[in-house]
Specification:
By secondary structure, the chain is α+β, with helices and mostly antiparallel strands. It contains 7 helices and 4 strands; from the N terminus they run ααααααββαββ. The chain has a 4-stranded mixed β-sheet with strand order 1-2-3-4.
Amino acid sequence: MAERAAYILQQLNYDEHRIELTKIAGYIHDIGNSVNRIDHAHSGAILAYHILKDMGMEVSDRTEVMMAIGNHDENTGTAVSDISAALILADKSDVHRSRVSKKDRNIFDKHDAVNYAVTNSELRVDTEQRKVILDLKIDTRICPVIDYFEIFMERTQMSKRAAKYLGLWFELIINDTNLL
């Protein structure tokens, strides 16, 4: 997440300080899962704030990181800054086979099947056309494309809003078909 979120702001020529804060937010964005998956964004924001405070980070910087982490969940968050928008785009585009740790496909739930079916996932920023592109290859022998949308529709909508915050259009391409 750290590198993917930073890549977005790098392509948009943000300054190194903003990019570094984005990397920090990306690196620790799911720290709240150590408390509970439910409301992990908010508990993670609080944890991150205190950890960064103990490390001596300036209050304005740790507040930026905290806001990005606290707003990255599709159920309760939205883009509130350039850092949060980049984190959202990086996080919500994180779909790929290597996320699946189960070895037995017979015990996959729908989320496992969708992630396993994604054989290639690429996030690109096209600065000339002012868009961010999520380009996926989904093996439809493993799961149909509609299963992707059942799981990722809210994430896709959140990505569209985050891209808009950055002045970009969000484009989704699945199996060489442009869907947005």
